[in-house]
Amino acid sequence: MQKIKLIATGGTIAMRKDSFGKTVPAVTGHDLLESIPELQESAFWDVEEFSNLASCNFNPERMLQLARRVKEAFADPDCMGIIITHGTDTLEETAYFLELTVKDSRPVILTASQRDASERDSDGPRNLHNSMRIAMDPHAKERGVLIALNEEIHAARDVRKLHTSHVDAFSSGEVGSLGSIDHDEVLWHRKPEPSVKFDLPEKLAKVMICKGYTGMDGRMLECMVDAQVEGIVIEAFGRGNLPPEVVPSIGKITAENIPVVITSRCLFGRTAPVYGYPGGGAELQRRGALFAGDLSTEKVRLLLSIALGQNVSHTRLKEILSRGGVK
Ligand SMILES: NC(=O)C[C@H](N)C(=O)O
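A: This is the predicted complex of the input protein with asparagine.
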């Protein structure tokens, strides 16, 4: 029998309703497996109870611990693949952290559910079962870190949670999913662009996010500098534009060698310094801001946190971001 590692971290997939009808952590990784006899019969499972937390508790340090556990699990040549159960709220962040730091070609699959384990039609068991099918599929290798929910397989770089409660909450937007599950068959549509890879960091840099809004000025950014920030991601408008009042602060901050990276509050499309009016992307670029293509704000923040923690040069960082983190 093939060996699969299951790392349980928590999320709604591991929750039940309490006596007040509120959803709280209650189910272990072992419980999850035991609830689906077909899983136990199909593979040899090595289960690790990493945590039982809602995913709002995940931070980059915890993601790093998880990345270390993944590396250790892959030291076992018999391990076919790793399935990680996780909350959906921040799943795309943990998946992308692993995407940037796991170098093994074997599949790492993150799965979750939108309906807790006390719901009669919870999506958890099906998502876990599908993840096992992916882990056992010989074609799952070399596709980066995968997200499996709602019969779909997504790439860590591209996926976003778009709906707060529906089971089809995740989407890869314009580029689409990597594959799907049809009954017990795994169907692959494409291979993802490979991501830039980093060694497991010893240190993570403090990177903060600021969202652009009408009437904004630079005070929030300057507060971040006072809080010893090492990098800032600004989720700007459209192609990467901001109110002109923000521009002087961007110049001041980049002059202190603190990278400022522009992303977009639009869900799809790339940022680019195409507008030359005050506050336009071209002016932000002249003041030293970098652009990160179509990579989401949260993912740029993680990439920056890892890269700056390893003293990646400004030139290299600019190059990595200009390719949206693609190798
Ligand atoms: N569906 C979920 O898993 C959401 C939950 N609040 C979490 O992220 O932990």
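The two ends are 35 Å apart (CA to CA). The domain at 3-188 is CATH 3.40.50.1170 (Rossmann fold).
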